[in-house]
Amino acid sequence: MYPPHNWDAFREPPDEPEPEPAEPAGEAPPLTECWRCGKQIDPRYGACPVCRAPVQALVPAPAPRPARPALVYHAGSPPAQDSVKAVLWMFALLLVTSVIQGWWVAAEAKNLARGREELQRALLNQMIAFECIDTFLVFIAFAWAGRPPTIQRTPGQYGAAWAVAFPLLAMLVGVNWLYHEALRQFLGQNPFFEIVGLDVRSEPVLVALVVCVQPAIVEELFFRYLALTHLRSVMGLHGAVWVSSVMFGMAHIHVPLSIPILVLVGAGLGYLRVLSGGLAIPMLMHALHNGVVLYIESKP
Fold first, then answer.
1. 218 belongs to a structural domain
2. What is the C-alpha to C-alpha distance for residues 46 and 295, in angstroms, rounded to an integer?
3. Pairwise CA distance, residues 231 & 225, whole Å
4. What's the chain's Rg over C-alpha atoms?
5. CB atoms within 10 A of CB 206
6. Which residues contact 41 (CB under 8 A, 6 or more apart)?
7. What contacts 24+ positions apart, CB below 8 Å, involve 61-64?
8. Does the residue 51 lie in any domain?
């Protein structure tokens, strides 16, 4: 005969309520987020009071990122991708006009090589014609791409932009001069910055308007306002500055030897645009840069 079984030994013990975590002592630190349930808890607890996740696995709140120029979009503006496509198409048209301009300059210089004064007039006329075309294309770009977002600047950035603008201008002019001096030494000729053989002494006011004023306004509106800001909406800040600077250099393909230094000039103007939050400083520096280079190239 079998001995009697102790059935109580097979029964599960009754569930005991889990003890509530003791209230931690000391000053309460900032709450943090539980890695498991996402609840905001006091990190002094040994475990999350909701899901019992161990405190060692709690994820602290991420540190705030440094402030960067923010973009403010305007109502009614087209999507960023459509605006960037419009800017790139207009840049392609500007590039085509620059290629035609370079071909025209070479043709004029070849046909009028014996008459310097007549060559000067022909070069000035063709430059006025092509800058009128460029201005028209930029106005079309404004209508097609739409108003770009506004780059907000933090307090103190505008003053910092003025503080660095003139030293940066001096550096860009110096590098430009050294670059073209090196080309003269290697090539034995004068690769003029803007237009081959254009002499400011023949028509000083007109040449200043064509070489300094118009490019400073129209090119800054397109490359630093439309191109840079629309590109900024689909890529990082430095990428937008340098891509728009390469576009700026390539738009001067009628003077191909100057493209590398123009990319650098465009980058300097682009960072001034971002730092100042506007176009006044880049336009002024652009006009002064072209004016100084024109003066240097016009010296006998």
1. yes
2. 75
3. 10
4. 33
5. 13
6. 31, 32, 33, 34, 48, 49, 50, 58
7. 61/30, 61/32, 61/33
8. no
Domain residues for the domain of 272 are 78-298
Distance from the Cα of residue 123 to its chain's centroid: 33
Q: Can you tell me which residue has the tokens 């991420």?
A: 62
- Which stretch of DSSP H or E encloses residue 71? strand 71-72
> Is 67 within a domain?
no
Model confidence pLDDT, tens digit, residues 42-92: 777 677 777 777 765 444 445 554 444 567 777 767 888 899 999 999 999
DSSP secondary structure of 17-53: PPPPPPPPPSPPPPPEE-TTT--EE-TTSSB-TTT--
CA dist 19 and 4 (Å) reads 38
State residue 24 phi and psi, 5-degree precision.
-70, 150
Q: Which of 253, 237, 246, 297 is nearest to 95 (CA)?
A: 253
- Residue 247: inside a domain, yes or no? yes
Q: State how many domains the chain has.
A: 1
What tokens does 6 get? Answer: 């102790």
pLDDT band for 192, please (50, 70, 90 cuts).
very low
